[in-house]
Amino acid sequence: MKNLSRIIIVLFIIITLPAVGYFVMESSGATAVTPDQKVIYDLPYPGLLSDHPLYYVKIVRDRITEFLTRDNLKKAQLYLLYSDKRAAMAVTLATKGKNSQAIDALSKAEKYFLKIAPLLKEAKEQGNSAESNFIETLKLSNAKHKELIGELIKALPTGFDEQLRQIEALNLQVKRDLESL
Fold first, then answer.
1. CB burial class (10 A; 0-12, 13-18, 19+) of residue 87?
2. In the list 98, 129, 132, 179, which could disulfide-bond 93, CB 3.0-4.6 Å?
3. Is the four-CA dihedral 4, 10, 11, 16 of positive or negative sign?
4. 67 contacts 100 by C-beta, under 8 angstroms
């Protein structure tokens, strides 16, 4: 029993170490769309997918990190990271043929993204506004998510069209929220 608790503690530490540092994403100000209309924005590696048996440990880690992050700007960066990871996860799950899980991941990605604009507005009211390159990164990420939604609409079977349209509506709401910043 003592060894099991040590193994769990070691696994928890190994899983939480990557979450300690935040992604600092910079935009070079270059064109965000290539001539073939692809958005130039790299999504982070998604890590454990929702079909993995230890995925719940990742969820617990994410919620603890979210709870412990009090600064609104850092929390906005964290939500962007979570959102991008979920979007990347959706693409990976769709290529594995796990369409329902892909839809769930993409929906969660957009719901995380919806939380960002209110945090940035609150931070601005407190006198701590976000840098313009972070806003540009958010806009690029939103455009990449829209591109992924469009690709999944084409790739997934027709039974998922309505769910993808709802996710597309969330993406449009995020775009409007970002434009108001």
1. buried
2. 98
3. positive
4. no
Name the amino acid, one letter, at 1. Answer: M
Residue ranges of alpha helices (H) inside the chain are 2-20, 55-68, 72-95, 99-114, 116-125, 132-155, 161-179
Cα distances (Å, whole numbers) of residue 67 to 106, 124, 131: 22, 21, 23
Nearest CA among 91, 103, 7, 96 for reference residue 57 = 7
Decide: pTM greater than 0.70: yes
Q: Which two tokens stand for residue 161?
A: 């069209």
151-176 residue pLDDT tens: 998 888 888 888 999 999 999 999 99
Which residues sit opposite 26 in a β-bridge?
A: none
